[in-house]
């Protein structure tokens, strides 16, 4: 037998030995087994997460509900503003006629009825946070007013609101409807 043949037999013997020996596991039994707590779902953790999700959902729906109510209130108020403005302007005109002595007894009775209706509207508007903007003889504010026209004026009235064409209103401190105004502009000589 040559040296080469002996070497080949030796390799075959080693291979047989390797096959006959059982393979050793790479990890120990302790590493393969996971604790019982990790195998079971963590119900408490799920409960906490679900509870937090529900609380977030509840808060979001409350905010949305308040937002929808505010939007509906705003829409309804915008529809009532023209009637309110007409009543107010008519009462001012009736006051002028009464001062001039041009009002009959029947018209005075109508005026009294209009004042009662107007008073109820004012109560409802105040309860909802709706207020008329006082803009006359004040500086023009682009955030709350729209300029309809500019008319020549004296130097001390430059930039002031001289006339209110359409009343402006706020609701809870925010502009509900901007005032439409005529602003004075100093004419340079």
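-> sequence recovered:
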């Amino acid at each position: 037998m040559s040296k080469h043949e002996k070497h080949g037999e030796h390799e075959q013997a080693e291979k047989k030995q390797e096959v006959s020996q059982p393979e050793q596991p790479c990890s120990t039994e302790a590493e393969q087994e996971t604790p019982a707590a990790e195998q079971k779902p963590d119900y408490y953790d799920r409960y906490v997460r679900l509870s937090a999700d529900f609380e977030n959902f509840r808060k979001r729906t409350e905010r949305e509900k308040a937002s929808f109510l505010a939007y509906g209130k705003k829409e309804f108020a915008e529809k009532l503003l023209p009637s309110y403005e007409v009543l107010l302007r008519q009462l001012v005109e009736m006051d002028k006629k009464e001062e001039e002595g041009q009002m009959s007894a029947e018209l005075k009775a109508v005026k009294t009825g209009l004042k009662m209706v107007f008073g109820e509207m004012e109560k409802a508007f105040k309860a909802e946070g709706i207020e008329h903007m006082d803009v006359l003889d004040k500086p023009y504010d682009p955030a709350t007013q729209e300029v309809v026209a500019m008319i020549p004026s004296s130097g001390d009235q430059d930039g002031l609101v001289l006339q209110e064409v359409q009343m402006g209103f706020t609701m809870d401190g925010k502009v509900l409807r901007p005032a439409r105004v005529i602003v004075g502009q100093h004419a340079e000589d």
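The longest strand covers residues 145-153.
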